[in-house]
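Query form — protein AraC family transcriptional regulator

QUESTION: What is the three-dimensional structure of this chain?
INPUT:
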Amino acid sequence: MPYFKPFNVIVLGFDGVLGSVLAGALDLFSFTGVSWQRFSNEAVEPRFKVQIASLGGGDIRCSNRLMMRAHCDIQDVTECDLLLVPTIGDSIDKVLKQNNGLLPHLKRLANTNADIASNCSGAFFLAEAGLLDHKVATTHWGYANKFKADFPLVDLQENQFVTHASDELGSIFCAAGGSAFYDLGLLLIERYCGREISTQVAKTQIIDSKRGNQNSYTNVTLHKPHSDQLVKQVQEFIEQNFRQPIQVSSLAAMANITPRTLNRRFQASVAMRPVEYIQAVRIEQAKRLLELGDVSIKSLADQVGYDDISSFTRLFKRATELTPKEYQDKFSRLAI
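ANSWER: The structure tokens for AraC family transcriptional regulator are given below.
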């Protein structure tokens, strides 16, 4: 089927980039219209022209010490259909400081109506450039607290795999992290080339894109970074005694404050009420037990402090979007 000229994709290269995502973006878009056609004995029709652009056009030192050569200088890129910002693999603050010369070019290209997309910690570049202010975005769940502290004007949807914000200047897409890049890539390929081509890419690359959010991957212990020592003490008590019945009134009495004050301070520190934190700790422990091997639902519920199996199963699915059995099949070490 004939088509117009390939869409122009620029992948941003910078020292400290995660090499697998930089190369993965190059491969995913470069082979769109190529791999399926080769397998099907059809005419090859590349749908994207993909180039890696760095500041000054210099070589790129990835976080794994792999050196990659840029195709062009980002300063010479006057327009593109899509600008991709890959994952930061090294220290985020260090990489942003060392590559702050890229920020004017992100802003400049954002004003050309180009689509802009980031993966994982690449969203920090977009936020640092002010492109995500008052817009929805996502990043890896492990960076969510830092992101919210650094960029309070951004509407961070930390549980989402992919977000999309648009205004009169264009669209900005963010992917959560790791393999969420492939969900983003397939979405963008569908945006430019249609569902049929996107499906072809998914099949040739063997990509399962049916993911909902990051909930099944998160770790509740990351809710700890805050300065309220009283709340930390209550958290530690919960984490050490989650198998036992725990009442919020008892926690408040232990801390010598009212339940209402405890609720308020928990909300301010960890964005949860104490009862939600108790549930989160129990679900996190259940996830770890499921990852270790085969365990019955009744035994699992007992080990994490639930007498009612149906209530436990309902809470687990609400937290992870998977049943305990589905979670075990997906993450158990015995299943690998």
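ADDITIONAL NOTE: The first helix runs from residue 19 to 30.
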